[in-house]
Write a sequence for this structure.
């Protein structure tokens, strides 16, 4: 997950930003063809990673790795069980991620930074929704 999804999601999310500094407002967005190509590669890699997730239903960190936040984040074995108990939902989230990454690619191909930011927000929602169900479900259970 960390290697296949995270850096490419960051590549898409960080492509456009607005920072207010003492010097004024800094609007960061891809401008040259090279910069657009770079973001495009991240979007493509994200689509690929999402497809893999949807096809295999296999996200999960190397077995034997223990949760860094036990009690909040599940251990890999327990995550596998959660996925095995609800594979359809897992696949749906993975497919949703793929669809949204494809939308991001379309926005990049249209060189539309506004659309890219908006779709980036929806990509983030998908990450979060899947994590809530399969990665740290206990976060929302009362103690
Ligand atoms: C279909 C479900 C699903 C989607 C969609 C999803 N994740 Fe995950 N993610 C998981 C699961 C399950 C874990 C915990 C198991 C693991 O660590 O692989 C996880 C763990 C992680 C981790 C912890 C590091 C790691 O490798 O264990 C990061 C970082 C992460 N996801 C980032 C993201 C980002 C960013 C997105 C969206 C662009 C995303 N994920 C979308 C299921 C998903």
């Amino acid at each position: 997950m960390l290697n296949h999804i995270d850096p490419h999601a960051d590549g898409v999310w960080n492509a456009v930003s607005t920072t207010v500094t003492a010097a004024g407002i800094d609007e960061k967005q891809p401008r040259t063809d090279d910069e657009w190509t770079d973001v495009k590669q991240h979007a493509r890699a994200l689509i690929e990673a999402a497809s893999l997730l949807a096809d295999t239903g296999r996200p999960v960190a190397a077995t034997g790795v223990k949760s860094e936040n036990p009690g909040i984040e599940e251990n890999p074995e327990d995550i596998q069980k959660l996925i095995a108990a609800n594979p359809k939902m897992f696949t749906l989230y993975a497919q949703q991620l793929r669809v949204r990454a494809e939308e991001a690619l379309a926005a990049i191909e249209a060189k539309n930074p506004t659309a890219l930011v908006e779709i980036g927000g929806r990509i983030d929602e998908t990450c979060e929704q899947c994590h809530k169900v399969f990665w740290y479900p206990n976060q929302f259970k009362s103690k």
